[in-house]
Specification:
By secondary structure, the protein is mostly beta strands. Helix content is about 0%, strand content about 60%.
């Protein structure tokens, strides 16, 4: 299933200003930026793909909680950068990018 799609250079911003953000379906852009932000926890459920290509970057940010990628969740920034940040633990699924950044201020990277 594909929940959100931006064609061409269209960018996507999903910002949960309060609470958690959970993705249950794919989020894709042709070559635009994809940013997912949660005030607390951010979860990519089983089989979810967050993907862009070329100059597009993917940024996932759990501002005060954990970032959880289930084992078959994928983050793809072909030829670009993927940035995953959380205050708590980061559980990594599959991340593919030229440059990858994993940053936690008070947790572990699992």
């Amino acid at each position: 299933d594909q929940a959100i799609s931006a064609h061409g250079t269209g960018s996507i911003l999903i910002d949960a200003l309060a609470g958690n953000l959970t993705a249950n379906a794919d989020i894709r852009s042709g070559t635009g930026q994809i940013t997912l932000k949660a005030a607390t926890n951010l979860t990519l459920n089983t089989g979810v793909d967050v993907a862009t290509a070329s100059t597009g970057t993917v940024s996932l940010d759990a501002e005060t909680g954990f970032l959880l990628m289930h084992g078959t969740a994928n983050v793809t920034a072909t030829g670009s950068s993927a940035r995953l940040r959380a205050t708590g633990d980061i559980t990594v699924g599959n991340v593919t990018a030229t440059h990858v950044s994993l940053l936690t201020t008070n947790g572990s990277i699992l």
